[in-house]
Amino acid sequence: MNEVSRRLKGNHALLMVICCVVPMALLAAVLLFNIPLGTVGFFAIMLACPLMHIFMMRGMGHGDQRAGSNSGVQGNAVGNAEAAAEPVATGRRSRLPSQTALTKSRYDRQARTYDRRMALMERLGFRRLRYKLWSLVSGRDILEVGIGTGSNMPFHPQGVHIIGIDLSDRMLAQARIRARRDAVPVQLLAMDAQNLSFPPATYDSVVSTCVFCSVPDPVQGLREVRRVLKPGGKLVMLEHVRGPGLLGPIFDLLNPVVVLLSGANVNRRTVANVEMAGFEIESVESHFFDVLKLIVARKRY
Ligand SMILES: C[S@@+](CC[C@H](N)C(=O)[O-])C[C@H]1O[C@@H](n2cnc3c(N)ncnc32)[C@H](O)[C@@H]1O
Fold first, then answer.
1. Helix, strand, coil share (%) of the chain residues, nearest 5
2. Distance from residue 300's CA to the centre of ligand 1 (Å)
3. Which residue, among 160, 146, 162, has the nearest Cα to 218 in the 3D structure?
4. From the CA of 40, how far away is ligand 1's center (Å)?
5. Where do the H-state alpha helices sit in 136-284?
6. What is the pTM of this model?
7. How far is 230 from 232, CA to CA, in rounded Å?
8. Which residues pair with 235 in a beta bridge?
9. How much of the chain exceeds pLDDT 90, in percent?
């Protein structure tokens, strides 16, 4: 059996498992633990997005395309990714370059369909939260980490200097198209959040939206963010996190599949990670059944 058919067969087996196990697990959760249907609907959408992505890529004939080029990415080594793996726990440095390469390849792969897949979530409330997040940003020098395809660009404040970085060249290519089309004055650079190439104390504010779910070593990335913030600088984040209560173990169960399909972890403890990186938390606002957090944190000194 050649490599391509082996991969397709593997994907089909995985999809069949997901299609059988996940609806049954969701139904059991609703019946046994009285979980509101809205919560289940939200996670069904989250799971449906990566699945739709697979079908769309197949339809477009992209197959299991992987990013081969490292060009332009500064920081940790980024190259071809071989196998799916779990996120790196802080301290297990040896696996970090391959985890980072894998994350890059996953976002490169979905760059062209990302906006279409996110459209429903944007309408369901993301857009409103992005607007709120940017109203909390202060100062003149702003860094947007993991800018992706530039979904935040419509909310960028005027008269400030914004640099957007991302690991994925192809997500950045989409962001460049958007910036040109909408005449957004943003500087875009390929860079790894875990190894920023800016001098210390450069930025007044750093922004991230749905990024630290994907950064392989989130605490290392947040330490880098803290390093490049000026003393008194602000970190403003909109990040989805591990669900509360009984949702937590369900997210843990689903996490490997979601990571494999989308690159994002659904069970990150991002508020704790922000504190672990040395920030002082100023406020945490919960949305979408406590799963989405609008976090404001400060570098005190
Ligand atoms: C789910 S997308 C979010 C994109 C955008 N912030 C948004 O709100 O639509 C996650 C983004 O984080 C980027 N990313 C993941 N790990 C990264 C890292 N270590 N350094 C920089 N960007 C990273 C991915 O390439 C991807 O563009």
1. 50, 15, 35
2. 26
3. 146
4. 25
5. 169-181, 218-228, 247-262, 270-276
6. 0.76
7. 6
8. 206, 297
9. 65
Does any ligand 1 atom lie closer than 6 A to the CB of residue 76? no
Name the residue with the closest Cα to ligand 1, atom 16.
Answer: 215
- Tens of pLDDT, residues 51-69: 554 444 444 333 333 333 3
Strand order from edge to edge, sheet including 186-190: 186-190, 161-166, 141-145, 203-209, 229-240, 292-298, 280-287
Q: Which residue in the block uniquely carries the two structure tokens 């937590």?
A: 248
d(C-alpha 142, C-alpha 161), whole Å: 6
Beta bridge partners of residue 246, listed in sequence order:
none
The token duo for 90 is: 């802080």
pLDDT tens per residue across span 100-125: 999 999 999 999 999 999 999 999 89
Q: Please list, in sequence order, all residues whose beta carbon lies within 8 angstroms of the beta carbon of residue 54, skipping any fewer than 6 positions away.
A: 11, 15, 261
Decide whether any atom of ligand 1 lies within 6 Å of the 171 Cβ. yes
Domains, the chain, in order of start with CATH, read 3-298 (3.40.50.150)
